[in-house]
Design goal:
The structure holds 2 protein chains of 2 kinds. Chain A is built from 4 helices and 9 strands. By secondary structure, chain A is α+β, with helices and mostly antiparallel strands. Chain A has one domain: Beta Barrel (OB fold (Dihydrolipoamide Acetyltransferase, E2P)). Chain A is globular. Chain B has a 6-stranded mixed β-sheet with strand order 11-12-13-10-4-14, sandwiched between helices. A 6-stranded antiparallel beta barrel of chain B has the order 15-18-17-16-19-20. Chain B has a 5-stranded antiparallel β-sheet with strand order 6-7-8-5-9, covered by helices on one side. The longest helix of chain B has 15 residues. In chain B, strand 16 and strand 17 form a beta hairpin. Among the domains of chain B are: about 140 residues, Probable tRNA modification gtpase trme, domain 1 (Gyrase A, domain 2, 2-Layer Sandwich), CATH 3.30.1360.120; about 80 residues, Aminomethyltransferase beta-barrel domains (Elongation Factor Tu (Ef-tu), domain 3), CATH 2.40.30. The chains are: A alpha+beta, B alpha+beta.
Chain lengths: ~120, ~375
């Protein structure tokens, strides 16, 4: 599996895109999706809510477990992916694309995110 | 030496096969077992509609032989094992003197004086120790055969056709809960029509060295029928849909078979005394007159999944506890088994919810099982 170079990564296995007009996209990595197994339910923050880097903002349920979703960035949620709410399997089939979770107007640049190569090494360890 | 040093997980004879297939492995009762190979939902659906191939070599086989093998098992277990015909199998339990369940078992009568007891991996040593202790005074031998067998299962509606292409054994004459020795793909096997999926299927007990060739032959024979390798994750959702209990979830030493709604496995009419008889007779009377909690099915109205240990609530009061829960691939909704107070146990009881991490999610009480195959 390969982690896209243009994204940055948290140690909680979320990815964050570069901001466009101040808005960045958040999702979970393929490594995380594989570890969860088939995702059957996602609870995402509401549009307009404020999320804080490193804090829980939702949850992901799979066949065997439930996992907290951590925001990799601080800011206001501008959009959530309704497609993934209706079809959580997108998280497994396209974690870096159609399975994105929500978009954030970035209030504060996160400090401790990993590059693709750093995350690849981290998630292999 | 450090006493906290954790033991290396045991690996089955098919370990290299699982790794080559890219399985996600998990520690299960001290064994490194395949959890899933790809999507557990797809594996589940394959077993319901086509066929799935499982490695169940973690299960614990114990052989009981001798002139008094039947008498020993009738004393040690709650069922009537002497009444099982040669070539047939029986679902039964082993209990403590106080009636608490030590394990649920499948016992195969291989010959007049030979039985094979199959225990859950986590309980195999406990069962072996209990049988050995209870064998005192009987002319019978209890043998640990865990290393003697690998166990493969082929489950699903296509499984008879797949197996027929590899054996001359009379599968049409092999009834559910029966077993016969035979040859499959050139390998000596005990062929049993048993499983834990709610589907038709077979379990094949073979020598560990024969496991890999048999796995490959079954994979090849099942290719056109859509057989896929299946892990323990889908085995759990399959048995849950079929309403089958899992030790450590629905069954434990603090419950008797009557508490678990499985009092039918206790045969008071058999000859002689058996371990737990007195306590179980009391448990039977108690369950009849004043059932404390009843095992029920719950089906979600929403999409959040109940997990083992979550409280079941009604009218703001805790009325029970979830023992197993998962998203059901067949129903398309979360389901659970739970012990609930008898007053709330009837199918359709209104106002029942599961406390899912602080939120009360509405659930419908249903009779078990959730899924029954059409025969």
């Amino acid at each position: 599996m390969s982690n896209p170079q243009q994204l940055r990564y948290s140690k909680e296995h979320e990815w964050l895109s570069a901001a466009e007009d101040g808005v960045a996209t958040v999702g979970i990595t393929e490594h995380a999706a594989n570890a969860l197994g088939d995702v059957v339910f996602v609870q995402l923050p509401e549009t307009g809510a404020t999320v804080t880097a490193g804090e829980t903002c939702g949850e992901l349920e799979s066949t065997k477990s439930v996992s907290d979703l951590y925001s990799p960035v601080t800011g206001e949620v501008t959009e959530v992916n309704e497609d993934v709410v209706n079809d959580p399997s997108l998280v497994n089939s396209a974690p870096f694309e159609g399975g994105w979770l929500f978009k954030v107007r970035v209030a504060e640049e996160p400090a401790e995110l990993l590059s693709a190569d750093e995350y690849t090494a981290y998630s292999a360890g | 030496m450090s006493s906290t040093e954790s033991a290396e997980p045991r690996r089955t004879a098919l370990d290299a096969v699982h790794r080559a297939l890219g399985a996600t492995m998990t520690d299960f009762a001290g064994w490194d077992m395949p959890l899933r190979y790809g999507s557990e939902r797809d594996e589940h659906r394959a077993v319901r509609t086509r066929a799935g191939l499982f490695d169940l070599s973690h299960m614990g086989e114990i052989t009981v032989t001798g002139p008094q093998a039947a008498a020993l098992l009738d004393f040690a277990l709650v069922g009537d094992l002497g009444g099982v015909g040669v070539g047939r199998a029986r679902y039964t339990m082993i209990c403590r003197a106080d009636g608490g369940i030590l394990d649920d078992l499948i016992v195969y009568r291989l010959a007049e004086t030979t039985y094979m007891v199959v225990a859950n991996a986590a309980n195999a040593q406990v069962v072996l120790d209990a049988l050995t202790e209870r064998a005192a005074g009987f002319d019978a031998e209890v043998r640990d055969d865990r290393e003697a067998y690998a166990l493969l299962a082929v489950q699903g509606p296509e499984s008879p056709g797949i197996l027929k292409s590899l054996t001359d054994a009379d599968l049409d004459g092999l009834k559910y809960y029966a077993g016969l020795p035979g040859t499959v793909a050139g390998v000596s096997a005990l062929i049993a029509r048993t499983g834990y999926t709610g589907e038709d299927g077979f379990e094949l007990f073979v020598a560990p060295d024969d496991a890999e060739p048999l796995w490959r032959a079954l994979t090849e024979a099942g290719r056109d029928a859509g057989l896929v390798p299946c892990g323990l994750s889908c085995r759990d959702t399959l048995r849950l849909e079929a309403g089958m209990p899992l030790y450590g979830h629905e069954l434990s030493t603090s419950l008797t078979p009557f508490d678990a709604g499985l009092g039918r496995v206790v045969r008071f009419g058999k000859e002689g005394d058996f371990v737990g008889r007195e306590a179980l007779a009391e448990a039977a009377a108690r369950a009849e007159q004043n059932p404390p909690r009843v095992l029920v099915g719950l089906v979600a109205e929403g999409r959040r999944v109940p997990r083992a240990g979550y409280p079941v609530v009604a009218g703001g009061q805790v009325i029970g506890e979830v023992t197993s829960g998962a998203p059901s691939p067949t129903l398309g909704k979360p389901i659970a088994m739970a012990y609930v107070d008898a007053a709330h146990a009837a199918a359709g009881t209104p106002g029942v919810a599961v406390d899912i991490r602080g939120t009360h999610e509405p659930y419908e009480v249903v009779a078990l099982p959730f899924y029954k195959r059409r025969k």
